[in-house]
User: What shape does this take?
Amino acid sequence: MEDLPLVLSHAYINGQWIAADNGATLSVVNPANGVLITEVPDMGTSEAQAAVVAADKALQGWRKTTAKHRANLLKAWFELIVEHADALAKLLTTEQGKPYKEAYGEVIYGASFIEWFAEEAKRTYGDHIPAAMPGNRYLTIKQPVGVVTAITPWNFPVAMITRKVGPALAAGCTVVVKPGEDTPLCALAMAKLAEQAGIPAGVINVVTTARPAEVGEVLCTHPLVRKVSFTGSTPVGKHILRQAADTVKKVSMELGGNAPFIVFDDADLDKAVQGALISKYRNAGQTCVCTNRLYIHDAVYDQFMARYIEAVADLKLGDGLAEGTEIGPLINARAVAKVDTLVVEAISQGANLVLGGQIADVGEQYYQPTILSDVTEQMNIAHQELFGPVTTVFRFNDEEDVIRRANDTPYGLAAYFYSRDNSRIWRVSEALEYGIIGINEGIISTEVAPFGGVKESGCGREGSKYGIEDYLEIKYLCLGVDQSPQY
Assistant: This one.
């Protein structure tokens, strides 16, 4: 692994690079070829508790630093991430599988949250409120919520960390990060760069583990933890909410999705094809905002499908570090089995296999880019978060009907539609029950806009000016003043 200079094999707690108390390790494997990259500590409850205590101890000093001081340290961290973007991207591709170009884009995107919240650190303003009583003055100030647990997924192992740690540190909080067990190396590399930037011991802690439920219980129930930020599946998010409830912690939940992508009869079809292609097949379909259900108006169905099938058929599978690769492997064998099972079941229920539908010849963890047509809402696949390179295609001919069908899901993270009618754009945008709407655009994530869902897709927002609010508490100060002098 000499070409991966940021590979680290120890967890990071209280400024120390350490092994598990019992010496246990977790193997990190390249999903493209099954080759062992390295082993990291397989930590348990005692190490998780130690990380929380370290974060709480560091909090006492960190929360007292000035916003400008925190901003300068975050800027230094941002600059180091950008400086090491190539090395981080190669590491990301090696442990996660996405093509290098996508990985590099994620690193720069992830760095943007550190830069953004470095700037927002200095803008956590309070208020002066006009008093109801002549002898009082009313003020509000904003203070850090305290120790934060950041539980992050494997599909964006850089950006999902920076989107949580950036605002937490900017607000004056300290953090314990538990990365996904398939992709712990990016988290450790980011911690190393934070250490080099001068962020003090205990402010960031990274606990690696192959026992997420055991460690997660500590991180979600420990009385010193005051906020939990989680990105992952809805069932796990609900479990975490129940765990956090006993001590009434603040929570941010970015959970599952079942994104519709609607192409109306007045859409620019070339743009719609490209938007659907990138929204569906980015990271081999392993994103929470991926298109899951493609609704095409009858009037343009044949034209759209002809262009879309041709574009999907041209996608190149392979190792993410190989030149020209557009789709890498799925994260593990379980993911491949889930996708294949859903496809086989849908075909048995009447879906038409247009393209793909099998494990690819490239390797055991590669699934062919797949298109299923004639899908209906009665099929199980219509109600699942696919997390794989599979497009399910539905037909429609009425705006009101397609809105109803698009909303007929417990999820509400992202939705997309293509239309050139301004009145329709407003109607549909307001009618779709989702936290994020892409209008004539397939890529929607940016550090300057709020990211998050409604319904069972979560609560809270990440990124933008709203993203730091979840890491702050508002304190009201009621000041009695001496009114005796008269002027």
About this structure: The mean pLDDT is 97. The first strand starts at residue 11 and ends at 13.
